[in-house]
Predict the 3D structure of the following.
Amino acid sequence: MKSLIAIFVSILFCIVQQNSQAQILGNPIYYWDFADSIPSGWTNSGQSALARFEYRGPNTTPSNAVCSRGSCGSGTLPPNSLTQSNGFMIFDSNYWDDNDNQCGGLGTGQDPAPHNAWMITNTLDFSGQTNVYITYQQQLRSYSASVKVYVSTNNGSTWTEITALTQSGIINSPNVQWKTANVSSWVANQSAVKFKFQFQGTYYHWCLDDIALYVPSYNNLELTSPQFTNYNELSDPFVNPMYDVYPSFMPPLVFPNAHIANLGTYDQTNVVLNNKTINLTTATTIANNNTSPITLASGASINLNTNSVNIGPVTADYQVTYSVTQTEVDENPANNTDTLDFSIHPYRLQYDEGETDNLYNVRSLQTNTIAQTGTLYYLPSNNNKKIYSIEVCIGEGTLPGTQIQGYIYIPTMDSILAETVPYTINLADINAIGDERMITLPLVTPFTLSNANLTFPDIVIDSTTMETEPNPFQNVIAAMVRVLDNQAPFYIARSGKAAAGTTYLHYPSSTDLYYLLRIPMVRLKIFNSGATPGCTDPLAMNYSASYSTDDGSCDYPGCTQSQYDNYDPTANWDDGSCGYEGCMDPVADNYNPTATIMVPCEYWGCMDATASNFDPTANVDDGSCLFAGCTDSLANNYDPQANQNDGSCIYLGCTDNAAINFDPNANTDDGSCIIVGCTNSNADNYNPTANQDDGSCIISGCTNSNADNYDPTANLDDGSCYFLGCTDNNAFNYDSQATVDDGSCLYTGCTDTNADNFDPNADIDDGSCIYIGCTDSLADNFDPTANQDDGSCFYLGCMDPNADNYDPMATIDDNSCLYYGCTDNTALNYDAGANFNDGSCVYLQASLWAPSTNGCAPFTLNVTNQTVSFPESQCQFIISTGDTINGCVPNFSVLFEQPGSYSIIYNYYYDGFLSSYTMNINVYAKPAIPIITSNPNTGIISMTNGVPGTYAWYANNAMINPVVNAPTFNNLGPNGFYNGNFTLWVTNSNGCTSISSSVLVLQPNFSIADNTICQSDTASIAIVPINVAGVTCTINWGDGIITPSSVNTHQYGLPGNYNITVECTKNGTTGQLTKPITIYALPSSPLITYTTGTLSIQNIEANTNYQWFEDGVAIPGQTTTQYNNFIGNQYNNGTFTILASNGNSCSILSQPFVVVQPYFTTPVDSSCTSYSGMVFNQSEIINGMTCNWNLNNISTISTSQASINYDVAGWYNIELTCQLGSTSMSYADSIWITQSPTAPSLAYNALGNVSCTNFNATETHLWFQNGQWITGATNSNFSIFDGTQYVSGWYRMNAINNNGCLTQGDSIYVLQPEFNLSLAQACQGDVITMNTNNNIPDDYDCQVLWGDGQFDLFNQATTSIDHTYNMSGTVGLTLYCQNPYGYGYFTDQFDSYASPNMPLLATQIPNVACINCGSGLSYDWTYWSNGLSSNGPSTNIDLGNNYANGPYQLTVTNANGCNSTSDIFWSIIPVFTVSPTEACPNSPVTLTNNTDGMDWLQCQINWGDGFGDVISDVNTLHTYVSGYSGDVQVTCYYDVEQGENAQWINIHDVPTPVLEEINEIIYITNFEPGWQSQWTIDNVAQPLYNNLSNLSANLGNDYSVITTNSWGCSDSSSITTDYIAPHVDEWNLPLSVDLFPNPASDLIQINCNHTPATLEIWSAQGQLIRKMNITSEQTTLELFDFSNGLYNFTLRTTEQIFSAQFVVSR
């Protein structure tokens, strides 16, 4: 028990969970509840291929009822998340590291820690989302691990940790919790987002469920975890529990409390919790309390409670309501309220919530063992209370007949406190979802709730040290229910979620204990001590007068299955009586093959004797009676009594089928024909026979007023309409309505002839021009007009890496390489390899150098001193600007700000030597800065201040090529204006340049797809792109609507002429372009009205054409303002619309109008009461349309026909209403009903007599027998005896009144059996026969009571039945017969005479005598049924062979002719011989039978080899197929007597030779002494070798031998050798083979002059060691696996053979 008790301790400190509540605090964007599997597109990976996240679901192993499987995870519950029932994800580090059931065995598992595993979502799109939160439920238990969540916005290329969700270190309480974080800063408006959930480290597990990404709410309070007691599951799950039902002696103290959370982003003020406690039974509010207002910050939560309420022990149903309010308007009020309910019951204690909501297989974790489940209850000590019984609810899947038993345990499950009597489950006890049928299991001894019984000792947690823990279960008991059959399935019904550790699943044999998340429906019944609870209802099957208090356990037997006809809703114990009612006669019209309970059969037919098809067997008139005459009420000679038309009907009307009023029913023309048609001779369908124009004239032509060849006189479109326009769908202005191309197509593309993709067919430049060239501005052939690089860029420069101006980018050497150095050969450091003087020359006299002495003001001159400087040297630099530099500086710079000519004089003095050097400088002035402006109307950009010089224009910092050397530039190109920033560069003759400020040119260009459209059409424009960064463009549609340029389509609300203006702007610079568009008005939308049969236009508009449509399809020829929808014999139903078109080719479709007009015709105009008929729905039924009948204000379901039955005279209305959506239409008619007579009632009140009990002499009456009319029977009585027998069956009377209305009376079934006996008297023991004389037309069952206490049952299939009386005297016989329709009986008498005593026979050699025969008897002896001459009580028997086998029989007869017989038997001895007694297999053996009395005996042979025969002749043959030595046995039978005899036989074994070739000798390896052999070689007999046991193998190829043993038994075998007989020419081609070396050690070389060949190596003992094919003339053979010794070597070709020997020696 140590491990089990450790589980109980952990329940309080380790695995208690809190109830999880919804925390998706807004509108979900993505949500995963892990139903069925890990979501599609997710990645489940890890550092190890084994330790990964696992999915747990209802159908996985293990299922979602199991949390950690590791050795330290025993007893942990799965996460109590929102959707735990459909699955969750878990990383089980403890399991992968240690699953040996010994917690602490680190690293002993199949994939030791530390672990690193992760799950990654699929790609998520948050485009348009600016505020996103992530939330999920987790259950985390950690030892040395961290769990982290990462986010990626580039599909997982890089990851960012969401630190708010990171947890690490030791976490000992694996409570379910919500984790939430704001991820907006990462994912807002991102479209490639993924999240990663990662576990790293060691132990224990991390469960995840209900992951959501959502947009948060602002004001949202959530009320969760409502309780009506002061209950704390975390501290103690058994104190103040919230039960569903409390017994009246322990009512709860109502302490309403709930958890309030602010799920919004704003603080909530004046937050108040309101609670009401309501007695639902009396509908009174007991308490109504509020908490004080508080402010609840965003994200904060609090537990609030109101005042406690003491409700007392009042038996009632109670409800506690919870509601939270605040000042702000809550965005989700649905989560602001909740209710809880409970009940106070006189005696029941119940944890579950009532009706079954879940079924659980108690054997789901362990099979083939005892299993039990139940609930823990807290009970206060009370010496006056006892638990008398346990209630349990059994679920579907449990089999009726399964035995269960209840127990009350100490919660540690180591002691049983009480137990119930075993109970066998009844079918009615089994519950489906939603049921609540409880079983009461009475305790054998009631359990007293005393302090002593509810105080439990401390728990021993270590049996060695006897260390204990306080028992946490004081006053707690476990109510358990166990299935007693180890194999039977057992499902418990459950209802409601359980607090942690309060429900058990227990397997006693293994002491394994589990906890259930849902509450098993196991309850307690508690009464006062001294009570005797039980069923107190005398009507119940388990009633007992000893019970004083009713405990609700009464069982009421009956059929409890609602699908059966005899279902009894008051029954709760199924007694097996369920059955289906119905007629059991297969020939009846209401025959029910499934019926087991008989009801009267119906035989449908015509019951009117005056009808031509009168059926006297019918008992239900089906309205099929036929009365000849004219049956059509529309006929002029209609006969209302007739219902069988005899062809006499006369119909006046138009008989011309071409007439509009043609009456197909008319057979007499009355001259009324109207022939409608087209009377216009110019029409295509002119009808010269028509006498009434119906407006149907068809004039073919183009009827579309929008067409270019519209014909206003045409009313039938002949398909000739054509529409001019652009028909090329590739064109910019493609017109989908056009059918004839008018050459107006415009094509977009590149219109610049200088472009490489110039499209000569393009009319509108779409900005797609491609200019191929060098696009690198650094290249020497850079083309600023190019926008597609063709790889032609080249770079001039020095390509010598040794040069000082080496250009690594250069691709063409332009001989520009410079080698810096001193190029003056007079200098001290002259460099002959230099070609560029870098000023490094050194002189002993004064010398200066500068890169350039000419420049543009302001000009900086950089001077290098080239004179060798010594410490004693003196230098002076005199600058003409007035500045002087003293000192021998190596270099210096001079800035000349103004243009002019300047000089520098350099004086150098050293060692008495003075030298001078003068450098002259020219500084030139720059031109004035040019000022430029642009003219948006002309496209010209010009300089306004006339600065002279040469000019170059730049666009967007690139020179315009070809160069425009002019002060003006026209930027209007073939495709519109060039847009961008323009500058002008002016250069004077001295090469000095000034640059103007940039001018931004913005001039949009666009085209309109169609500038004349209808009001319903969409205007569309195409804007030529402006390739200038930062430019924004808008479209002013001219109707007050301005949109961004990206919205280039628009629909005008009103017709008119509009101007579309595109305006583009950047930094205050604006350009615009305006073009016109015309919008034509639409015609008015037609309004449709409907009166039965006609659809009309309500708002007809002039100059408008109309076309009717049905279900979206134009109705040919229907172009008027009305449409008649009655076609044929029904109304045309459907959805109708009208298309209205005006002169501008603009059209509009009306709103759809749905017509569901029903139609039917009544079967008759009038009839009699009890009329039954059918009325048929003749409506056109369209998709989705339903119709309902209203029969005289009684609505019926939607059917295609309705049954009408009228029992009272009067008018009856029939109405049919059809509906589709919200549209409903009706059609009505009526029928007149005349009163029928009262139905005659019959009774069978005297033998053979049927009478009418309510006979009315004013009416005419007809009698029917078994449906057949009885001619002449009209009186009130009728006899069923026909003179020879009683005629059973159905009898009925019909009544006809003076109105001609017929009423069929109720049928009565008369069953009158009758019989006669084969004998009036007989002997005791004789068989008499009862012959029935029944005339019963239906199936029936009979019971005959023979008068001797015996009875027999039979049915109509039996017409006679035999019986034997074992008594004497006069007896009375009674025959009862019945069937589901009725029953009857018949009686008679019979005399039975006594038989003499059975004679007792004994053998009194040489006689057989009767030793108990008295006087007055006669005797009859037989032997083998052959009569003997003796007529006394004894007879002499022959002592020869005849008596040995056979019975002697004696029959004695008394004076009444009654006799008795007995016999005596002698022993049976079979006599036979077997020949021969020794033989070979397959030789026949004969058994000759000499046994006496074979006429009576049956004899069988057992041959001993598994075969046997029945003797049917004197001789019996048998063949043995193998050797046998033993007995042949014969057994003979007569009645119960039998005898047997045996003879020995020996069948010798066959000598089968076994051949084997050894060292070229063929041996018979099993040759035995006494065997003979006959050899055959190559099919030739070899008499010379007969009787030898071996032959040489070189005599041939095929060897056969026949061996024969000393008994003459023989057998044969064959063998084939590889020997090749030599040929004559073989010696001419000798086979040469060399072996080297010989002897050999590890290798031997074989040289052969003939290949291919077969090599065989044999041991000296003749065993084949190796066989292989030789294909090369030289082969090396490995001998590593050969042991030392001599070996035989054979080499065979197709014609020769070579043999030799070699030795292996090491």
